[in-house]
Structure formats: C-alpha cells, structure tokens
Design brief:
The complex is a heterotetramer of chains A (202), B (196), C (334) and D (207).
Chain A: H1 2-48, E1 54-59, E2 63-67, E3 73-83, E4 88-96, E5 101-106, H2 126-130, H3 156-173, H4 182-185
Antiparallel strand pairs in A: 1-2, 2-3, 3-4, 4-5
Chain B: H1 5-15, H2 26-32, H3 36-65, H4 74-96, H5 98-104, H6 108-112, H7 115-126, H8 131-159, H9 171-186
Helix pairs in contact in B: 1-8, 3-4, 3-7, 3-8, 4-5, 7-8, 8-9
Chain D: H1 2-14, H2 29-34, H3 39-62, H4 72-94, H5 96-102, H6 113-123, H7 128-158, E1 160-161, E2 164-165, H8 169-173, H9 182-199
Antiparallel strand pairs in D: 1-2
Helix pairs in contact in D: 1-7, 3-4, 3-6, 3-7, 4-5, 4-6, 6-7
Classes of the chains: A alpha+beta (202), B mainly alpha (196), C alpha+beta (334), D mainly alpha (207).
Chain lengths: 202, 196, 334, 207
C-alpha cells in the first residue's frame, strides 16, 4: 500500500513544484510581453503615419486616429486584409486628412504572413510598396486599369490582393478623416470593377 | 478558420494533412508504418486517443484554465492529461476488451510521445473551435493520420522488394517515398478555397 | 500572488487526483505477479524475435507467469537466459537442446547451373514465384539472400557462391530464417551435431546427377558405410537418425558427391602407441586403409588417409590407439 | 579511472555523429523538418530544444531515486513541460518575431520524442554528470543536423543563408519552392540518411 500512496504523492509534489515555478515565470514575463506588444504596435503606427506624434485606438486593433503635437487629428491608420494566394494578407495603411496615402506596411512572415514564400514575399519589398506612397485613392489601380501600380511579375494574385485590400480599407475608413471630408463623399464607387469616376481632377 | 464543419473536416483530413503538410507525428509515422496491420492498429489507437484527448483538454481549457486565467499552464496540463489518459486507456482495454488490446495495445505507450495528439489539442484551442467543431477537427486529423499511415505502409511493404543499394534500404527510401506522397498531397492546396 | 495560488491549486490538484486515480487503477487492476512478470521480461533478451512462438518477450513473460509455460522456449537466450529464468522461477533447468541453423543444400552458383536467366527482384521469395527459382534443381537454395536480410542477429552472410554462410557465434537459432526461406533449405539442428546431409533433392539419382555436382543421387554407399547404421534411405534421400549418429564423419568421406557436411573445425588422427599387439582388428575396421603394419608387429596410422572416425579406437582390444591432434573429438568416444 | 573518463567523453561525442538523434536514432524528426525552412528559425528552435533537453536530463537524473517506477512517465512529462513553458514564455517576451514564426512548434517540444526518449532511456539510469553530457551531445547533434538542413533548404529557396544574399542570380529569380514545402524536407532528410548510411555504416540494430 505504501508504494501506491507514494505514487500519488510523488506526482502531486512534482505538480506542485512545476505549478509554483511556472506561475513565477509567468508573472515575470507577462509584464515584458505586454510591453513588447504595445511598443510593437506604436512602432508600426508611427512608421506608417510619420507626422503623427500620438495615436488613439478607436476600433480594437483595426483603426487608430493620428494626432500631431497640438492634438489636431492629421490622419488615420487602419489595418485591412485581402485574400492572397495562400491566405489573407494583413496591410497597415497610413492615410493623411487629404486622403493621400503616406506609407503602407505589410506584415512580415514573422507576423504570420502566409503568402507563398519567395515569390509571395516580394510584395514586402520597398520597390513595390513605394508605388503606393503619396498616392490618391483613384491612383491605387493596376496600370492596365488606369492606375499607377505595376504588379510584380509571377505574383499577380498577391499584388492584386494588396491593391484591393488598400482600396477596400480606404472606402471603409475614409469617413473617419476629419478634414474636408465632403470632397470625398461624392465619390461614386462602382463596387463591381472598383473603378471610380471621382471628380478629383478639378 | 472557416466555421463550416465540412470544410474543417476536409481541411484537417486532406488539405492540411497532419503528417504530410504539418510535419506532425513523424516519429510514429516512420516507426510503425512498416506493415499494414501495425499501421492499421496504430491509426485506430490514435483515433481513439485523439478524440478523447480533444474532449478532455477542450473542457479543461474552457472551464478551468480560461476562467482562472491560467493559460500558461496549458502545455503542462494537456500533456499530463494525455499521458495519464493513455495509461487509463491501456489498462481499461487490457481489462475489458482483450482482443482489441492484443491488436492495438502495444501501440498505446507510443502515443504519449506522439506530437500529433498534443498538436491537435493545441490547434483546436488556437482556432477557437466549439466542442463539436473541435471533435470534427480531431476526427479529420485522426483519419488523415490513419489514411497517410496506412497508404504509406502499403508503399513500404512494396519497397521491401525494391532492388536498392544497401545505403538506401530502410529509412532513406521511406523518406523519399514520403516526399513523393507529400508532393501529391500538396496538390490539394486551395481545395474548396482552403488555404495552406 | 493570486496567480501563484491559483496555479498551485489547479495543477497540484490535477496532479493529485490523477495520481490517486492511477494508484487506484494500478491496485485494482494490478495483474497478479506483475512484479514477477517484470523480472522475467528483464531477463529475456528483449529482441522480440518470436522464437518462443509468441509475438514478443513481454507476451512470453506473461505466458510464463499466467500459464506456467516451460521456461526454456527462448532459444536465442541460450543458457544465460535459462539460468536467469530458472533462478527467478525457482524451477529446475531442463535445458532444451540448443540448436543452430544449418543449410541443407550445397548447390551454389558453381555446383548447380541455372535453368533460365533471372533478372527480377533480388529476393528469394520473388525468385521463388518464377517456377520455384532459376536453379535447375527445383529443390535447391535460390541463393538471393532473403535469409541473410531477415536474420535479426546478422548471423547469415551470402558468400560468392550465392550460398548463405551461418556464423555459429551469432546464430541464436531463433528460427526466423527457417520459417522465412521459401525453399525450406534451412533447418535447425542441435548445436552439438557436427555431420549432416546437405541435400534436399527428392529427384531420382539420374535427374540429380544432371543438374547438380554435389547432389545425393542415392548410391547408398553411405548407408552401407555407416558403422552405427544411423542412415536409412527414405524416398530418394538418406535420413540420418541423430540419436544413433556419433558424428564420426565416415559418410562425409565415403560419399562420392560430398553431399554430407562436417561442421567440425578439425578432426583428429589415429595414433597407435607401443602397446599395439599387431592383432589387426583396427585394419579390418578402418574403411579408409589408414592403418598399415604386418601382423604381430606394431601397426602405424597413415595421417594423410585417416579421417579421425574413431572406429579403430573402439575396435582396439588393448586400447593402444589414441585420437590425437584435434579439438573436441577425443571427448566423443563411442 | 581512465576508461570511466573516456566512457564519459563517449557519451558526449557519440551523440553528435554515432548516435545522432535525428539521423541515426530517428527521433525528434517533427521539429527538425518543420522549422528548418530558414537557418535563423532552425537555430532558434534547436537552441530552445537543447535548453529543454539538457535541463530535463539533469532534473530527471537528479530525482531518479525518488520516482516510483510505475508513474515515471507522467512525472518526466511534467518536468519537461515545465521547462518547455519556461522557454515558451521567455521566447514570447524577449524574441517575439522568432516565436511567431515557430508558432505551434515551441510548445510541441514537450512531445519531441528525443527528450522523453533520452530522459527515460538514459537519464533514468545514469548520474547527473553523465546525463548532462549525454544531453549536451544529443543537443549538439540535433542542432548540427537542423542547421545543415536549414542552410540547404534556405539556400535553394531564397538564395540567402542566415539572411545574407549569397545565391547566384538564377537562384533568386527562380527560387526552388520545392525545398520550402514538405516534400523537399522529406527528400532532404532521406538523402542525408542515405549519406550517413553510406559513410558511417552503423550495423542494423538487432531488435
């Protein structure tokens, strides 16, 4: 009988020690993880909307409002995603009040980007991303559709996904821009082809 | 992940097959799949344990760990449950179902170190499945595991007679054959729009 | 601190109740003598070769405990395992005759020509599917080395003549090669048996002579030559009665086609001491004319001719003959 | 004393080639194939696994006298999972990018057959120093194979090694995606095993 009770007790003791040790480790690392997560986001937001000094999160993990020194809202940052070849491509877009895209940031493989490795990752190269900088909504189109974006050879699906993602994001979040949003209202968005006859040229 | 049960089943069963695409459960895969009967015995044992493990771990996670905010204990608790579960099942089978035990009993200790079982329990939690969906997910994975192991053991039995140089006999040729089977399974990506 | 206590209670609690459950299960379902079974399992070699007829050492251990089976069924274990089991089970050691695998066919590539060129899978079982192999002797060893590949102890190697060579030290008589050989040309013979017939051809004499240079074509010389009449002809092959045979080796040398094999490493030769009275009994008995000498004179053994069969040793009334110069033979007096 | 010392060194060195966990003992395959897509992740994974392996070997041999034989597997598993959780959370805190790439494979170290295998087969019977040496040897062997595999796979798929572009032009423009996907991993480890069989002929184990 002794050996049997010793069996249960030994398991119990080992579990106790393990539980104690783990809880100590958890409490120590928890703070660090939180800090890590926070400044990770801050870094990305400021990267995408450089002029903004501080951000306020309005929709959990999808929309932030950017403010400059004297707390004027100068733009928004939003996260959009579109179905790529092997999975959704998360994109972070910084949009100034004048609906001009400042910068965009695509999550790297580390952040769970599931694109076909090698080819799919080309969308993260600055040469492709630069095409989107300082562009208006209308210009975010493939060259053949009247826009200014050149797709990457051999990974059209991913390039299209990025373009559609950004367009969908702008359409959805432009109402949050506080500047002269009326000029944006009369955009007639033809959702089928995504092409728009905006009266921006005037 | 999709919430349509059929899609989850197919994703777990073929598209994201647990052995060939997710690289899990390779140790038993190469160890046990030498003959058809052992492969079949192992897959039934795995199915049996995977289902029970998913139910038990899912309930423990959602009714014990989550409310108490002890998620960090997840690894320890899950693997402890699986290890003792395997011993329970082994003794239970030895006692009541002698025939079943003699057919599949020797594989049960192997299952404790089978990465596939623990991985399925973790994925079921990470994908935030409800209990029913988690069961379907586990079922899909177990059948996927069984399918690949049985299919592969037939290949390996045939490989016994293949005229090979001495250094390729045994594991090397098994790996290369597995590579071809994995290549075939890669073809399933995008079936019903399911991502890799 | 609350996380600390919460985790202690949960994991600790879980560990405790699982431990108690396990203890309870072990107690209720503890198999009688599981301790004994574990000891036996530790004593067995653990190679799960199946020689004891069970799918593994664990199962054999269980059977010993449960159904009180004899403890000498583990052939590869040999003496040491037998002693260990004897000690554990406290039983007497009725040692089973220790066996070794032997090839009873001498028709290799050179001796027995091929009927057709076979270019198929390199496994005897595959070749066997093609009309029983490409050897012109249908009964003979195909020589593609399946026994070598299947032997768990690596005791069998294929020689250049495409015949399996069995290494005495490594062979544990587990019998797997005997079971696996499609042509049944491997048998288990007692380890102490030195001489055996190495031919399985049931063909008539003439047919055997056509196909194989070392096949037994039933000339009956060995049957007549054997002083212990341990050989009787059955069908087209002499059958050796292992109890009568004393491994003297006469049949090996008298057989015109060397169908018999002698496993002895070396054989002695007869040495006639000065006590010889020249009675000539040994000359009558010696079938190889290896003793010469005039009557009433001390006889002399011709080492070259003497095969060390020991007949003269037995026949000598004055014990003047001793068998000299070889390992085990002296112990095998008649 | 001399053969005692050489026996100890033997524990250390045969872990690297003669009894290399992945290529000879064929245990610990799951993480090896899964995380060897890039050299950086492979190295991260093998460091984590080595830490867990060495610590669990030490602790198991430390308490081997008090562990009752029938319940030893759950106890070993708790010890290993404690170390794995420690690695899991420290990685999440200090190396988040690597953690996100390795994903589900970090907690899966606990069922890495190599660790439980070594704990039960070796650490349970040997003293602390030998277990540490054996753990170290196996860890170095594991890391060696993992890094070699990841260098080959990364080189062919992206023309880089550890992130530095080395590949000639044609690799970068037409990368061999085959190497990133599972078939490439299986093929590569098959070829490595054949290579080992050819040059380090290890007689087939008897059982």
């Amino acid at each position: 009988m002794k050996s049997l009770s010793w069996m249960a007790i030994s398991l119990f003791i080992v579990c106790l020690i393990a539980a104690g040790l783990l809880s100590r480790v958890y409490t120590v690392t928890k703070i660090q993880i939180e800090k890590q997560k926070q400044d990770g986001i801050q870094k990305q937001l400021s990267q995408v909307l450089p002029e903004a000094v501080s951000f306020r999160e309005t929709i959990d993990d999808t929309l932030w409002l950017g403010f400059d020194k004297d707390n004027q809202q100068i733009g928004i940052v939003f996260r959009t995603a579109w179905q790529g070849y092997a999975g959704p491509i998360p994109i972070l877009v910084g949009l100034g009040n004048d609906t001009v895209i400042r910068k965009i940031y695509i999550a790297s493989a580390a952040e769970g980007l599931k694109e076909t490795p090698g080819l799919g990752f080309k969308i993260r190269e600055t040469s492709f991303l630069e095409q989107f900088y300082n562009k208006m909504y209308k210009e975010i189109q493939l060259v053949k559709d009247g826009g200014t974006i050149h797709a990457i050879t051999a990974s059209t699906i991913s390039s299209n996904a990025v373009i559609n993602g950004i367009r969908a994001g702008i359409e959805r979040f432009q109402s949050n821009l506080d500047g002269d949003t009326n000029s944006v209202q009369d955009l007639q968005i033809d959702t089928t082809t995504g092409a728009t006859e905006s009266d921006y040229e005037k | 992940m999709t919430t349509n049960p059929l899609l989850i089943f197919i994703a777990a069963f073929i598209v994201n097959n647990i052995i060939l695409i997710r690289y899990l459960g390779l140790c038993p895969f190469f160890g046990v799949s030498t003959t058809l009967t052992t492969a079949f015995g192992m897959s039934t044992a795995c199915l049996f344990v995977m289902l029970i493990a998913t139910w038990v771990t899912w309930t423990i996670y959602h009714f014990l760990l989550l409310p108490l905010d002890l998620i960090f204990l997840r690894t320890a608790v899950f693997i402890l449950i699986i290890a003792t579960l395997v011993q329970f099942v082994e003794i239970f089978l030895k006692k009541n179902f002698k025939a079943l035990y003699s057919a599949m009993g020797i594989y049960l200790p192997l299952i404790t170190t089978n990465c596939a079982i623990l991985a399925v329990t973790f994925l079921a939690i990470d994908y935030r499945f409800s209990l029913i969906l988690a069961t379907i997910f586990a079922l899909g994975n177990a059948l996927g595991f069984g399918l690949v192991i049985v299919l592969f053991s037939a290949i390996r039995e045939r490989l016994e007679f293949a005229p090979l140089s001495r250094s390729f006999k045994g594991y090397p040729i098994a790996f290369i054959a597995a590579s071809l089977v994995a290549l075939a399974f890669l073809g399933f990506i995008g079936l019903f729009g399911l991502p890799l | 601190m609350s996380v600390f206590f919460k985790s202690i209670i949960t994991l600790g609690g879980l560990g405790l109740c699982l431990g108690v459950a396990l203890a309870f299960i072990f107690k209720k379902l503890a198999v009688a003598g599981s301790e004994l079974e574990k000891q036996i399992k530790a004593a067995l070699p653990g190679s799960n070769c199946g020689a004891c007829g069970f799918p593994g050492c664990a199962v054999y251990a269980e059977k010993i405990v449960k159904e009180n089976l004899p403890i000498n069924k583990c052939l590869p274990g040999g003496k040491e395992v037998l002693e260990k089991l004897g000690k554990i089970m406290g039983k007497d050691l009725d040692a089973l005759e220790h066996k070794i695998a032997a090839l009873i066919c001498r028709g290799g590539k050179d001796e027995c020509r091929e009927r057709f060129i076979y270019d198929g899978g390199t496994d005897c079982r595959q070749a066997y599917l093609m009309h029983g192999g490409n050897k012109s002797c249908v009964f003979g060893c195909v020589g593609l080395g399946h026994c070598a590949s299947v032997c768990p102890f690596g005791a069998i190697k294929m020689n250049k003549n495409r015949q399996p060579v069995i290494n005495d030290k490594k062979c544990t008589a587990c019998g797997i090669c005997v079971k696996q050989c499609p042509k049944d040309v491997l048998v288990l013979i007692p380890r102490t048996k030195l001489v055996y017939l190495a031919c399985v051809s049931q063909d008539k004499g003439k047919a055997v002579k056509d196909v194989c240079t070392v096949g037994c074509f039933t000339c009956n010389i060995c049957i007549r030559a054997c002083p212990y009449n341990a050989l009787t002809m059955k069908g087209n092959l002499p059958v050796m009665d292992f109890n009568k045979c004393t491994d003297c080796g006469i049949c090996v040398h008298r057989c015109p086609t060397d169908s018999y094999l002698d496993r002895a490493k070396a054989r002695p030769y007869a040495f006639i001491s000065s006590a010889c009275t020249g009675c000539g009994e040994c000359v009558k008995v010696c079938q190889f004319k290896a003793i010469e000498g005039s009557p009433e004179q001390r006889h002399k053994g011709i080492i070259a001719k003497c095969i060390g069969c020991g007949e003269c040793f037995n026949a000598c009334p004055v014990r003047a003959i001793t068998m000299a110069g070889a390992l085990g033979h002296q112990t095998r007096t008649a | 004393m001399r053969n005692k010392k050489s026996k100890r060194l033997q524990y250390l060195f045969n872990g690297i080639i003669l009894e290399n966990p992945i290529l000879i003992l064929m245990i610990g395959l799951c993480p090896a194939l899964a995380t060897s897509t890039t050299a950086k992740d492979a190295f991260g994974m093998s460091v984590a696994t080595s830490f867990v392996l060495i610590c669990s070997n030490i602790v198991v041999s430390l308490i081997r006298k008090f562990v009752p034989e029938s319940v030893r597997i759950p106890i070993f598993i708790i010890i290993i999972s404690t170390f794995v959780t420690i690695v899991d959370y420290t990685m999440q805190a200090y190396v988040p990018t690597l953690y996100r790439v390795l994903g589900v494979f970090v907690p899966l170290i606990v069922v890495n057959c190599m660790i439980l295998g070594r704990a039960e087969a070796f650490a349970y019977q040997h003293n602390i120093f030998d277990s540490f040496l054996d753990g170290l040897g196996k860890a170095v062997g594991f890391t060696l194979v993992l890094v070699i595999m990841s260098i080959i796979r990364e080189y062919f798929s992206t023309g880089e090694i550890f992130g530095f572009v080395i590949g000639p032009r044609f690799i970068i423009s037409q990368p061999m995606l085959f190497m990133i996907f599972p078939p490439g991993a299986f093929l590569l480890i098959g070829l490595l095993k054949a290579f080992i069989n050819k040059f380090i002929i290890k007689p087939e184990p008897t059982d």
